Amino acid sequence: MKPGPLPSPGGGTEAPHLDVSVFARGLLDRVVTRVYFPDEVPANEADPVLASIGDPAWAATLVARPGPDPARLRFDIHLQGDQETVFFDV
Fold first, then answer.
1. Quick one: how far is CA 1 from the chain centroid?
2. Among 28, 38, 62, 68, which residue's CB has the most CB atoms within a 10 Å radius?
């Protein structure tokens, strides 16, 4: 079940998304990111968190993409490198 839009602290609306925490051997602390949905283009464009990232290519690391099965999405998390996923300080 996909979540709906959420109120943002600034009074606007955040696009539907999932919060994700990653725990892994070698990480001293968890890292936190979000997964946005590719079929929510207008909401994603208006989302204050995505807009705060600035670089559209980097913000795109937070948007899932369709998988081979149309009923499923794919979201890859990259801890470092050229395609590093955006992580948030919490």
1. 17
2. 62
